[in-house]
């Protein structure tokens, strides 16, 4: 749980001082790091990020999705960051979530109301 809190805080701080693209590069470069510790399940990591995010100010859906992505990569799991948009009362709204094998791991609430953009890292 402390690792999740550290990742959520680091991503929140990173998104405050760095452009989104730079934060993504840092997460992608970290990759899997073999550990003597037992591998933590995807569901446990998602639960942990969701739980600690309640205590981090402005831990938005994007913050949570990026933090979980970093933790999953560290454990050797792959996942796909998705960003969607929707128009509500004339305003453009955005939402981020993380998917693995077709399942939304974090950010599921309201995701169906958003039209997903091309997966991050891919060019249309």
Structure description:
This protein is α+β, with helices and mostly antiparallel strands and 124 residues long. It has one domain (2-116). Helices cover 44% and strands 20% of the residues. The protein has helices at 2-17, 20-30, 42-53, 61-75, and strands at residues 80-88, 91-100, 103-106, 115-116. Strands 3-2-1-4 form a four-stranded antiparallel beta sheet. Helix 3 (42-53) packs antiparallel against helix 4 (61-75). It is globular and about 50 Å long.
Give a quick set of tags describing it.
alpha+beta, 4 strands, single chain, 4 helices, four-stranded antiparallel β-sheet, 124 residues
Number of separate structural domains: 1
Please give the alpha-carbon distance between the first and last residues. Answer: 37 Å
- What is the residue-averaged pLDDT? 89
Oligomer: single chain
């Amino acid at each position: 749980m402390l690792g999740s809190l550290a990742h959520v805080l680091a991503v929140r701080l990173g998104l405050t001082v760095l452009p989104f693209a730079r934060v993504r590069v840092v997460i992608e470069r970290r990759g899997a790091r073999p550990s003597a510790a037992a591998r933590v399940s995807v569901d446990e990591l998602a639960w942990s990020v969701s739980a600690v995010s309640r205590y981090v100010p402005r831990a938005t859906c994007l913050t949570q999705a990026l933090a979980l992505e970093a933790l999953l990569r560290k454990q050797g799991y792959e996942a796909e960051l998705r960003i969607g948009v929707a128009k509500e009362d004339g305003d453009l709204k955005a939402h981020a979530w993380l998917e693995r094998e077709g399942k939304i791991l974090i950010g599921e609430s309201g995701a169906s109301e958003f039209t997903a953009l091309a997966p991050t890292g891919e060019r249309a």
